[in-house]
Amino acid sequence: MPVYIRKTMVISPPSILSRMSDDEDDYLTDPDQIRDLLPQPYRMINKIIYNLFDDIWEIISERENARIAEASRIKPPKYECAIQMQPFGQATCLSDSIDGRYIFIGLPNGLAAVDAMTQQTVTTWEDDKIEVTQMQVSLIGVQTYLLCTVDDMGVSRFFAFAQDRIHLLKVASEQGGSGSKTIITKCQASTEGDFVGIVFEDTSNKETWIEVQKLPRDDWLRELEATSKKSTSQTKPQSPAPLGDDSDAPADGEQLPGEEKMIDAEDAEKEEKQSVGQRSQSPTSSRGAMSPVPPGGGGSSEKMHTKFSTPTLVVKIRPPADITGCNASTPQQATKLTDTGEVIGSGSNHSLTAHHLENRKAVFDYFHEQHLRYLPKEEESAQQPMFHFFTAGRLLPTGLDMPGQEGRPSSIGVWWVGGTQVFYYSLVKASKDIEHKPEFVSPHSDVLTATAVSQCTSLLAVGLKNGIVVIWDMHIGVNRRLINLTDDATILKLVFLNPNICGQDKVHYPPYGTKTNSYLLAWCSDGSVYLINCGMGKTSQPITVMPKMSDQDNLPTMVEPVNGVPEVILVVKRNGTAFLLDVTKGNSLPLCQVNLPTTHELTTPWDPVMTVGGQGHMMYLKASQKDPSEDYIPNSGMSSLFVFTLRSFPTLDDYLRRQRPDVPYVIHNTVDKRIETLLKERIYQQASRQRRMQERWINLKNELDIIQQIKDTNKRNADLRSEYLHP
Predict the structure, then answer these.
(1) Using one digit for the tens of pLDDT, what is the confidence trace for 714-723?
(2) CB atoms within 10 A of CB 431
(3) Please, what's the largest Cα pairwise distance for the chain?
(4) DSSP class of residue 579?
(5) Distance between CA atoms of 113 and 563, rounded to whole angstroms?
């Protein structure tokens, strides 16, 4: 095909710049590249060296920026006045008593009770074959404490500390099972020790279940009091009886005054073997050779103990079964098996057949085959449960009409790790079968990661994987608040703080209280910590206590409120630093940082062994020596227990001296209380009403006089008008 070009058309020559390559190695852009590249393998070596220098420069820049930021940051005051307790250096767990009087220490060969303020050993309980790894303390009486422990072999024991002595109450074991391969992973009692939940795990098939037992608390208190009286009478010096006087001699089968009723050694050994399973009974244990319990310094509790009452099994809870297809053969049968929908259930009763579910799974696998291969393989592990005890309320009315059940737990809420539902079971409902269905099921939109219950069990907070926190009022049965904390992290822990640190709304009428405000502390996986107001109808944004952490070493591993000082929390970071922070001031500077001696560092910062006792006055923590070959003052050893006197810290003096009123989490006003309060208010205002009545009568007399004067004036004016018109 011919192409015609006009003769007057001028075609400009191509520009050299327009043909320049974007390649950095082109000699037109860089004259140094006019020479040929290095041959292999020198070309690869040159590239590696250049990349190495770039990486090193990035690391240097990051460290320099971090150093500048650290130098410009305002550092909190540091305190190092620590008291060293070398005899308890091998402590495995620490727990504070509810009233702050004592610190209970778990050891590789027993237990120890220490005075929280003076650090004096009160008593010890020794057994070379028991290494306590978990411990929970409940106050069940006047200076009587219940200790629920779990050792390294998966055996749980109940101890009672009373009259400066530790008594072994019961060795927990599975009731009705073989127990040959069963261990206990968790043991948690209610606030006042009425019930206890024990988590069992079968190591052979990874099966897990919960046994809730009712503790004979009142019987234990009476038995402890009787044991204390016998022990006191036994220690008193007695005058020798005269010869030939057999009036005080006990008869056959009668117990001597002061002689305790002991458990049969064979029965105790059988019971412990049933609980422990295949535990080695070798007396020459390495833990026993350590002997970490300090000799002297406090009375040792006798290992022989009185036979106390036995707990009663109330309910046995197993994890929810996987959802399977309906076994009905016809639609009519499927409709009969399906729930009516009046009560929310677990979703196991439905009308979907197994064939339908298999087809849905096959279609999903077919369309997402390219993505399913990259999913991580799920390892088979036992389902771990979390549970809380609740008193009766409008949401869980079981036991609400029982007069003797007031203030005591009547139900238990259980959720399983990885699940989206909370199951509530009754503890007071009479049932022949200990494995019964839940009374109520609460579903949620995402996987549950954390829950918290207020001390009165009236408030429940649920944290979800997507960063949402749901707060329920269990007494009234309504949802108090739903808030989305973050979109990039999950909720790790929730804690209700004492309401006396939260500002309360002033209500002039009615004269009785209607609602209170309280704070909820939320700790997220990205290191951020928030403070949420749980008041009814509150819409305020949460307070940021700690911002999001980008450095992995600065991520907190422990966030705990200080008992006795609710405004202050204890934070431990992954790098081993521990400091105290005021949550009410938002994102502010820490109050102080606790520093160990230069020869020691915090033991296992990812799971520190520490607690605060004495109502916030003393801090106990375990630290290890950095260099075992280096001597330090005052003692030597691999690990020690350090005690910090927080009341000597100037920045905490104002918090420890502060007076805090007693404010409830939720106000429960019955009709009788409301009528009584209104009647008292009416009687109190009687004097003011009489005064107002007298003032009203006085004003009424003046008003009548004024009205009479007006009438007389009008009458005179009328008479004058008539005389003028009719002269």
Answers:
(1) 888 888 888 7
(2) 11
(3) 154
(4) E
(5) 18
